[in-house]
Design a protein that fits this description.
two-stranded antiparallel sheet; single chain; 33% helix; 4-stranded mixed sheet; alpha+beta
C-alpha cells in the first residue's frame, strides 16, 4: 500500500515513521534542528511549491531516511493512511 503525498509522490506505508503537522511541530527548537540537519544531509524532498502543511519521515533500507515536505494537511494524510491500513 502506498500513501499519496501530493504532486505525483507516493511512499510505501511500511516506510513511514511519522506524519507531523508543520505549524505545531516547528515551534520546537529540536524539530527545527532536525529539519535543518536533514536538509543539510540532502534527505529533504519538497513535494510542492505551495505552503507546506506537513512533513512525513520515512526510512527504507534502500534509500535511508527521507523527509517529505507536503502541502497536504497532517489530518488528511493520517485519514488516508488509516483507510489504507483498514483495507
Amino acid at each position: 500500500m502506498y500513501l499519496f503525498l501530493g504532486q505525483e509522490t507516493v511512499v510505501p506505508l511500511c516506510e513511514i515513521i511519522g506524519i507531523f503537522d508543520m505549524d505545531n511541530t516547528t515551534i520546537s527548537k529540536s524539530t527545527r534542528s532536525f529539519l535543518a540537519e536533514a536538509e543539510q544531509r540532502g534527505e529533504v524532498v519538497t513535494v510542492s511549491d505551495e505552503l507546506p502543511k506537513s512533513f512525513v519521515v520515512c526510512e527504507s533500507e534502500k534509500n535511508g531516511k527521507t523527509v517529505y515536505i507536503s502541502q497536504i494537511s497532517c489530518a488528511t494524510l493520517l485519514k488516508r493512511a488509516k483507510a489504507l491500513r483498514s483495507n
